[in-house]
Write a structure and sequence with these properties.
It is a single chain. The chain is mainly alpha-helical. The chain has helices spanning about 10-70, 70-85, 110-115, 115-120, 125-155, 165-195, 210-225. It has one domain (about 45-225). The protein is elongated, with a radius of gyration of 32 Å.
Length: about 230
């Protein structure tokens, strides 16, 4: 039994040419689709990194602001220590009430939200650098919260009158605690700077005008002498 393959209408050569055109068209379409996808991925990575960079620039500025309060913090703790020590003999005449220093909250929303393709496609080395820097900031934020609580405890005490023995004891404990926190915060500067440098991120404050006015007023009150 013999089988006869159907012949193309215009011959095998033209048929092969038509098939070739179809194959080339499919390849071009696939290549174009891949190119579009690559452009889309590159754009998503760039947008993700831009958002992360902006968030980290804010955090760097927030940390720098806290560091700028260091001299005022040391002076205020020394003053409060002196006031508590002298209260056994006389109540100090304070120029104004002690105030807790306001610091700028850190932000983590972009990093927490960037769990999709934009974050996964970031080059591994850069992604590890981002993760390291955010980890450092989370540790610092935890320390900053403890510091804020401690300053609030001191601000709640009435230093215009003689403290009770219990309040005086608590004040000394809290002052010692704040000095320890100061010692722990300083090393963060080198860790943060070293982790931000490879990413080429610089501090960029983004505080609005009303908030900046409040911060300026608080700083003036925190840095001015009590006695």
């Amino acid at each position: 039994m013999h089988f006869h393959l159907p012949k193309p209408l215009h011959g095998w050569r033209e048929f092969a040419g038509e098939v070739g055109i179809i194959v080339i068209g499919v390849l071009i379409a696939l290549g174009a689709e891949q190119a579009i996808e690559a452009i889309h991925q590159r754009s998503e990575v760039e947008q993700t990194r831009a958002a992360l960079d902006a968030e980290l620039a804010h955090n760097l500025a927030a940390f720098d602001y806290r560091l700028s309060l260091e001299p005022c913090s040391q002076s205020r703790l020394n003053e409060l220590q002196s006031i508590v020590d002298r209260q056994r003999y006389a109540v100090a005449a304070l120029r104004h009430d002690p105030v807790s220093p306001l610091t700028i909250n850190l932000e983590f929303a972009m990093w927490d939200a960037a769990t999709g393709e934009g974050r996964s496609l970031i080059p591994l080395q850069a992604k590890l650098q981002y993760a390291k820097l955010y980890d450092i900031f989370r540790h610092y934020e935890n320390l900053r919260n403890h510091e804020s609580d401690a300053w609030a405890q001191l601000a709640d005490l009435d230093f215009h009158s003689q403290l009770s023995a219990e309040d005086a004891k608590q004040a000394k404990v809290t002052i010692k605690r704040l000095r320890r926190i100061d010692q722990l915060i300083r090393p963060f500067a080198s860790f943060i700077e070293g982790s931000a440098a490879p990413l080429r991120i610089r501090p960029e404050p983004d505080i609005n005008a009303p908030a900046e006015a409040v911060m300026r007023k608080n700083r003036a009150g925190f840095c001015s002498p009590l006695i």
